[in-house]
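Slides due. Your pick:
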Amino acid sequence: MLSNLFASQFGSVLLGESFPDGSRVDDSGDTYEAAYNGACVAAALEDYERADELLNVAAERLETVASSDGMSATEKKGELSVLSAQRAFILQQKGRHSEAKEIYEKCLNDSGKRFKNVTSTEIDAKLLLPQKRSIAFNRALLLGYLKKLPAARAYAAKAAQDYSVDDGTSVLVMAALTSLEKRGLDAVISQLKDGCASNPNSETVHIALSQLYSQKGDLDSSIQALSSFIQNTSSPTPGVVWRLVALFKSTGQYDNAVSLLDKASSLWRKDSKYSSDKDLFRRIGDEKLALHRPQEAAKEYERLVRSDKSDQTSLAGLVLACSEFDLVQAERYRSNLEPVSSLLLGQNISVDVDALESNPLAFAPALAKSAGATAGAVKKSDTSGRVQKKRKRKAKPQPKYYDPNVKPFAERWIAKRDRATQKRRPGGQGGRAGKDALRGPQGATAGAGPGGLGGTGSARIAGLSSSAAAALVAASAAATPAAEAAAVPVTEKSGAGSHGKKKKGRK
């Protein structure tokens, strides 16, 4: 009975109907089906913590039933996959997207085999219209995930025709299939632009288009996409407003951001859904204060304080805003703030105000590194009241011939054969290529012609002109006739000897 009760409550929430608060049973029942249905009701009411607890209870009871009733491994796997999918949804709503993605991918691996069970005629008769519509679009997305794109488009088109609801779901599904077809970001953006034109009140389509423009780097178009939606709605949701404010701040349009906050504040005060949300209006004051509009922020805080004089958080914001333009007014409001000791009344917490004021980290977190270095230089006082200085560590011993003024050789730890000076260069071998490139054949001497070395007139010695170089060569040849005469017999001797001896390996 509890399972049926939870199922009916979930159906009421799904259809947008309300039921008396007393009719909701918070107990999870005795079976895992009841616990699972209770989790679905809690998730539909956005009580995700309670939904997560009930899913854990359902999983424990399923293990007990599987062991006692002899449930097969296939049946147990099918039941656990349903719980896993619901858990992934709850994790996604709680902001734990990476964990939700892992569970979704595991569920999708074998979803194609079990999807026929969901779309059978017997089960289809028990489903509500929103459930049938969700299953139809999910089947299209599943086929797209399985790379069956033509069939996915056909199912999506059929679902859009059978369950025509002006919420932009079909546009998003078609855009997702376009992305899976790898047709490029521009094709997806073009499709979403057409969807925004045909669904001007669809928040999800406008947010998706704005996100893609931001991903492309076109922030102006991203702002335009959200601005056009806000103009067509009577009460924008907080998420759209905060995103558009962030875009205005990133592009330096501070006046537009303040105007948007003023418009949202006036609309939300008239809407019963948001009029009693203090955190929402306090966030508006915080945003205006961050935009350097303290007077306008003070008005938001002052409304909250007038409606609830015990709201110490809004009063603190009012004091902070007034301190930037009216110190007398800020001091008057500050006198109404409760002392810290009264805020901690009943809690086992002691606060040393002097220690907080003397701690620079409480006021300047960026000074943590420098403050830590300063605090480490001096130790606490000992019993005699003297302050002990921190002893400096002894410097490490240096090599015997260490010279601090000479930069160490960068390749001292590299083997000599691998150093840059030993690498092969064009025109020679090893690191001595520069020296060998200036040497000629053994036994040969360079003649000195009238125009320069070798008689070509092109050689230049140490930057001298050709005439000066020739004179220098002629002078050196005249000064060493003996050396030049002795060079000839050596050359002839070596030549004669080389002709008379037969080289190895030749016939």
Q: What stands out?
A: The chain has 25 helices and two strands. Residues 48-68 form the longest helix (21 residues). The longest strand covers residues 448-449. Strands lie at 448-449, 452-453.
